[in-house]
Amino acid sequence: MTDKNSNVGADQTSDEVTVETTSVFRADFLNELDAPATTSAEGTVSGVEGLPSGSALLVVKRGPNAGSRFLLDQPTTSAGRHPDSDIFLDDVTVSRRHAEFRLEGAEFQVVDVGSLNGTYVNREPVDSAVLSNGDEVQIGKFRLVFLTGPRSDDDSSSSS
């Protein structure tokens, strides 16, 4: 039994590395978790009224950067874990190149581009789907609400 106890002091000087993780949250983060959601099914969020015609907004409803907003104002907007993504979602549940948001005509569409965990719209798995105001898009553990800006009369007549 003395052999067992003789290594106690040696363990303290070993080269073992312990890994610790520290999470940093904004001071108001916990209050936001308890607060009611700022978006409704109709997608009323301040700032939506100011969106340019023909553009849309993605608001992170749930995920590491909840509350972040991403403007969809290009023909194609990429989302993924790759640092060069237009929408950078830094989490292991997100593929490097996960999904694209495409503006086709007057409609926005989300397209899964071969992700490992899939892309969901309103909790249904999709390869691609046309988005409507208030739809919830899930990419990994991120849940984003899709909100559209006001449509001009030109937008509706150009699709005829």
TrEMBL record:
It comes from the Bacteria. Keywords: Phosphoprotein. Residues 77-126 form the FHA domain. The keyword 4Fe-4S does not apply. Pfam families: FHA (PF00498). Coiled coil: none annotated. The keyword Iron does not apply. PANTHER family: NUCLEAR INHIBITOR OF PROTEIN PHOSPHATASE-1. This is FHA domain-containing protein. It comes from Mycolicibacterium brisbanense.
